[in-house]
Structure formats: C-alpha cells, structure tokens
Amino acid sequence: MSLCGSVEFDGERPVRGGMRRPLGRPMGDRTGFLRKPRETTMGKTSGKTTPRERIVVVANRLPVHRARQGGTGPWKESPGGLATALIPIVRRTRALWLGWTGSTGKVVRPFSHNGIQISPLRISASEADAYYDGFSNRTIWPLYHDAIRTPEFHREWWPLYVEVNRRFAQKAASLLRPHDLVWVNDYHLQLVPRFLRELRPDVRTGFFLHVPFPPNELFAYLPWRREILEGLLGADLVGFQTTAGAQNFVRCAKEYTTADGTGMTLHFGGRTIHAGSFPVSVDAGWFGETADSPLTVRRANEIRQNLGRNRKLILSVDRLDYTKGIDARLRAFGDLLQRRKASVNDCVLVQIAVPSRELLGEYGEIRSRVEQLVGRINGEHSVPGRVAVHFFRRSFPREELSAYYRTADVMLVTPFRDGMNLVAKEYVASRTNHTGVLILSEFAGAARELRQAILVNPYDIDGMTNALHTALHMEPRDARMRMAFMRSTVRRHDVYHWANEFLRELRRGTAR
Fold first, then answer.
1. Burial class (CB in 10 A: 0-12, 13-18, 19+), 100
2. 84 or 15, which is more confident
C-alpha cells in the first residue's frame, strides 16, 4: 500500500564482512533500461522505446481520478499503491494505461495526463456493484487476505466479474500492436490473461498480483477456483510479491487444473507458464530527493513545531481498511500510555487514514471503531496543549507525506496481512540521515526484505506495546545501523529494479 540501493553511512557504505567503500552512484541506477528515457530502454541498446515494442498496462483503475466527487473537475494522480508503483514506469517507457475511471457516468475519450497515455473503459452501475464492490472486494479481497473477514460467495456476482474481465480483454486486444507487451495487474482482472490470449495469441502477457495469493486451504473455498486459475494461466508470466505467493499459486494450479510442471514452471494447454516472486518497490530516488528539498525541510520543521519539539512522533499511514490493523495498533498505543511506559509529553501518534470503499458495510464499521478508539485514548490521556492521537481521515499529497516521513521518529506499519506495503519502503527511502525506527508487521510482504525493522505480530497487543517502547528508547547508533541497511535494500531494489526484472522475465519467458 502506498499513499501518495545504496547507503550513506558516515560518509561510507557498509557492506558484508565489515568492509567499506566510498559513496558513489546509487546502486539502483545500475538496473538498466528504465533509469532514463533516452538511455537503454527495455534492456535494449536503442534510445527511447522502439516502435516495435510498447508496454500496455491493464488495471482496474486508471492512475488518475477526478479532483471532485461526482466525476467532475481536473484529473489528479491517484494515491493508491498500484498507481504509485506503476506511474514512474509508465512515464519512463511511454506506455499506454487501460483502466476504469471509477465512475459509472458517461464514456471518457482517451487522453494524456502528465506524460501518461490513458485509455478509459466504462463500467455500468450494475457492473460496478457486482464486479467491483461484490466479487472483487467482498469475495476475493478478504479471501486473499487470510479471510480476516468472511468472504461472501454470491453466484450472481460471478457472471458480471466474467463480463467485465472479458471487456477489458477485448478493449486491450483492440489497442494492441504486434510485439507489444501486456502487463495485467491485480485481483480484479484475473480472467483477462485467458480472454486476451484467445483474442491475441501473438502478444506476450504478464500478470502481477499486488495482494497475497492464499494457500490451498483458503483458496479451496472459492467456488470458481478452476476458472480463476485458468484465467491466470493465460499469461506467459505470473508474478507475485513473495515466493510463498508464487508457490501457493503453483500448488493450486496443479491441484485444480490440468497444469503440471516442476519448480515455478507450469505446462498447460500446450503452453509453458512461469511463476515468480517480484517484490514491488518505490521510487527511492524521488523520496530521498524530496525529503531533502528546502520546501520539505521547512514543512517538516513546521510539523515538529506544531506537535511539540520535545515529543517523539509516531506515524502511521494507511488506507482505512480492516486488513491494515489500525484498531489493534491504537489499542497498543493506548496500552503504552495506560501502563505509563510513555506519556503525552513524551510522544504523539499521528494516524493518516485514507477513506476507502466506505459504502461497503465492513469499511463503515472499521471507521467507527477507529474513531471511537481515537476518542477514548484522547479522552483518557490528552492534556491541554498535548493531544495523544491526531487522526486524519483524508489523503495527503506525496510531498506532504514526505514531510511527515522526514519528521517521524517511529514509523508504525502493522497490517494484519499485506501483499507488500509500500509505506514502509517510502519511509525508509525518506530517511536520508539514517535516523528513525520502523516497526513492521511480520505479515507484510515488506518484512521479507526489511529485516532490520522491529518485526511484530499485529495480533499481539502486548508485543506491539513493547515494540513501541523499544522504538522510543532505541540507542541512536543501533537505529542508524538498522536504517542504513534498510536504505541499502530499498535503494538497490527500487521500483525500476522491480519493473526491469518483471519485464525482462516476461520478454525472456523464464522466471527467476
């Protein structure tokens, strides 16, 4: 989830075995074709993207939305994790983005926005109810997130999920040129690869799942499990955030379809399909440069002044979703104050929660629960001039988030389940002075890479309370060393590295 390399450590870069070497060009810049538009592109030695090859991104939503409710006003870039990850890639490669506007109003003609070529697809109100609100977000979303909420299986949703997926494939097929690469994204469009292969078998198709893929024990609940798997098997490459996700997919494909194979390679319908792990990341260079810009430094100082210069800032940034564990972390922070391990004079929690799917019942419930917890904690622990929790139920621009990342002494990222969680990586990328402590759920995909974070079980309130106490009192040297290594990881494996690896494997047809 997102809303909006190398390590500089005492002038040198720590490496394995205690050896050091002088700072130089960030290692992430070595990843190749996506670094600069007029350098090598798509792994080739030509200048910009060649006419023979173009990337067509297919996603449920466009990377932009209307500035005002009701589908009016100018277009603005969307803050979601998928858009945040893909927008830099689309700009660098001059790709085409096919998606839904999010509105059920009139048809929008193709347009360009800040260098992004956009082809909108219209979805009717009835389709949105069944395909998006229903099957995607009340069946697949909870099922793929460990059934934190009980998935709903309504057979009337399925035909419209199929129909919308078919129309995405038909629209994509009409836009494709020979030699194009198609990049289908996320759980809303799991049938698109199969439909697209039926229409355009001449193009290579990759599918990337941004959320977890569940183990067989959960996936087996889905009445349409074979159809979903056969939809995904229409791709040449199926990518996941973690190795566990890729392994779960391969096991399920062998169990519920006629696919067979070894390792991460499957054979199905006379074709070879590869599965692999490609952990998504952030534009680490942008976050680092923005964090150090004069405007961000000035804004960070204002935030620090407003919250109290002698107080440590604990920051959380999430969509307001039941999978993010916001209520559990609030209880942990309340316990920290209740047990007098900290006071409102010592620290303050800022929770930024971006509204999400609020028309769905369970999202209204989590909003009410979070607001009640914030009210209780503030009622019990705030004093004049010192509020315990600042709760913002709105999205912030990336530049404003950067100022908060720069200011925060502790970043608290504790989802119950998350495919990756880009907020954790955005925070690390923004800590150019190597201060700050990251508390991270062990059930977020990012925990596989950011091992130097304080890893917690978000279901363990006492454990999170103790982690907060540890983070607030961590020795500066220990905090700097941890952050230095995490920054090395994020800068080396940034969003361009992720895209390079996925697209290279898609072109080659062999997953790592």
1. buried
2. 84
The CATH number that applies at residue 214 is: 3.40.50.2000
Shared-domain flag, residues 326 and 466: yes
Which candidate in 29, 409, 418, 494 is catalytic? 418
- Hey, what amino acid is at 244? A
Tell me phi and psi for residue 21, to 5 degrees: -140, 155
Report the Cα 88 to chain-centroid distance in Å. 14
For 313-334, how does the pLDDT look when each residue is reduced to its tens digit (9 = 90+)? 999 999 999 999 999 999 999 9
CB neighbours of residue 30 within 10 Å = 11
- 438 CB contacts (<8 Å, ≥6 apart)? 410, 411, 413, 424, 427, 428, 450, 453, 454, 482, 483, 486
Total domains, the chain? 2
- Same domain (yes/no): 210, 293: no
Do 296 and 260 share a structural domain? no
Whether pTM > 0.85 for this model: the answer is yes
Please, are residues 184 and 206 in contact by the beta-carbon 8 Å criterion?
yes
Q: In this structure, are residues 414 and 314 in contact, taking their beta carbons and an 8 Å threshold?
A: no
Which entry of 210, 381, 434, 493 is annotated as an active-site residue? 210
> What tokens appear for 458 in the block?
């978000």
Handedness of CA 48, 53, 54, 60 (dihedral sign): negative
Q: Range with the lowest mean pLDDT among 17-21, 268-272, 422-426?
A: 17-21
User: Which of 203, 507, 445 has its CA nearest to residue 192?
Assistant: 203
Query: What would the mean pLDDT of 247-255 be, rounded to a whole number?
Result: 98
Element (H, E) at 347: strand 347-354
Residue 32 has pLDDT above 90, yes or no: no
Long-range residue pairs from 474-480, CB within 8 A, at least 24 positions apart, any chain: 474/437, 476/435, 479/434, 479/435, 479/436, 479/437, 480/9, 480/434, 480/435
Domain that includes residue 216, residue range? 50-121+162-281+496-508
29 is catalytic: no
Active-site annotation holds for 469: no
501/471 same-domain check? no
